[in-house]
Design brief:
It is a single chain. The protein is built from 9 helices and 5 strands. It is α/β, with parallel strands linked by helices. The chain has a 5-stranded parallel sheet, sandwiched between helices. Strand 4, helix 5 and strand 5 form a beta-alpha-beta unit. It starts with 21 loop residues before the first helix and ends with a helix. The relative contact order is 0.15.
């Protein structure tokens, strides 16, 4: 796929950005960001079957892996890391893998995304099961590291999906369940950390939250299995119990701290 064919590399609709005043820059970025939710909405028919397929495997003990490079990799790691405290799940249930490893979370690792074989090796290190699922994340849809991981996963019977911001990409051709969020050219030409990254974050939120709900980690609309890792969360849990059982705040807090989770108190 040539760079000229990528929507993510097309010239911005805005020019002479350096001559804009701050307000104009902010309003223009916001105007472009408004397009993202519409692009994600159009992709829901692609997202839904992927979630259903992953759910089926997770209920049999499978794991979910996000694989990406740069911004895409960081967003995958971010989403995965937020699930244990929010939904009380094991950190090895949803796993984020980024090209270049831990170092790449904070700074660019030169050429890490260009190594297709390393994508395979980094994924293989987790002793994969056919019940596992892999979602490759790459705005361009051409990142070798991500393609290598998805290709290896599919060849070994894992369920595979991807999230891209270009249509008909090499990555999408390797995945069983491609998701294409076509957000258009970036405000700063080629800066896919902007609209493409926002779309990726939205889709990841949708996938993981839907899965956690389907896996029984939510009751009503509450995070009843959240980890009590700080006072804010203890207070939130206390109020959930107080509301559900009609007891005093102090009694609810005491029961919560004794049980260790909202779910154990109100179930």
């Amino acid at each position: 796929m040539k760079i000229d064919d990528k929507i993510t590399e097309k010239p911005s609709y805005y020019n002479h950005l350096e001559k804009m005043d701050v307000g104009e820059v902010l309003r223009s970025i916001n105007r472009e960001d408004m397009l993202v939710a519409g692009a994600v909405e159009c992709a829901i028919p692609q997202i839904e079957p992927l979630v259903r397929a992953i759910e089926s495997r997770m209920k049999q003990g499978g794991r979910l892996f996000y694989v990406g490079a740069g911004t895409s990799g960081r967003l995958g790691v971010l989403d995965a890391s937020e699930l244990p405290p929010t939904f009380g799940v094991s950190p090895d249930w949803v796993i984020g893998i980024i090209a270049g490893g831990e170092e790449a979370l904070r700074q660019a690792v030169e050429h890490a995304e260009d190594d297709e074989e390393q994508g395979r090796l980094d994924l293989e290190a987790y002793r994969l099961s056919p019940l596992d699922s892999v979602i490759g994340i790459a705005a361009s849809g051409t990142t070798p590291y991500v393609i290598g991981a998805v290709k290896h996963a599919r060849a070994n019977g894992l369920l595979t999906g991807c999230i891209t911001s270009n249509p008909h990409t090499p990555l999408a051709s390797e995945a069983e369940y491609p998701i294409e969020t076509i957000v258009g050219p970036e405000f700063v030409t080629g800066s896919s950390r902007m609209k493409s990254g926002t779309a990726q974050k939205m889709v990841l939120n949708m996938i993981s939250t839907a899965l956690m709900i389907r896996m029984g980690r939510v009751k009503g609309n509450r995070m009843v299995k959240m980890q009590l890792t700080n006072e804010k969360l203890i207070d939130r849990g206390t109020r959930m119990i107080q509301e559900s059982l009609g007891i005093t705040y102090d009694e609810a807090r005491q029961r919560l701290l004794e049980a260790g989770s909202v779910d154990k108190v109100i179930s």
